[in-house]
Amino acid sequence: MRLVLTSDTHLPKRARDLPAPLWAAIDAADVVIHAGDWVDMAALTALSERATRLIACYGNNDGAELRSRLPEIARADLDGLRLAVIHETGQSTGRTERCAARFPDTDLLVFGHSHIPWDTTAPGGLRLLNPGSPTDRRRQPFATFMTAQIADARLTEVTLHNLPPR
Question: Whole-prediction pTM value?
């Protein structure tokens, strides 16, 4: 199962559209995971129309209409891999331990908010991934998104994709 992970798209405030390499990855994916801060309903509509399956939550910059359509925490079972998606996880100090305690029944937690890519595994096995932002790199050298695969209920081939400057 091929996954695309993205977050903090901030459309149309930070960009008019998603970068072409991200759209190409979305078109090839079995599941697209978005960890919030869409900003505009048009972004959700566009992604919903192109993604084979979309698992998503709302973020702190998402208004009432997006919040009425998306949960604060999205959960899914992907071929035996237990997934949770949330926008905010708090400060980076203690994040791994804090999230492991909050999501004990989860194998993979995808989050956003910071626009900073993150990939770590808690001692109990919880994998935490933040794909960064494809439209607003902030203090990072590149705008980013991630791809991954699931095989035999395990996450494999996690790749951070650096996007070319706009």
Answer: 0.96
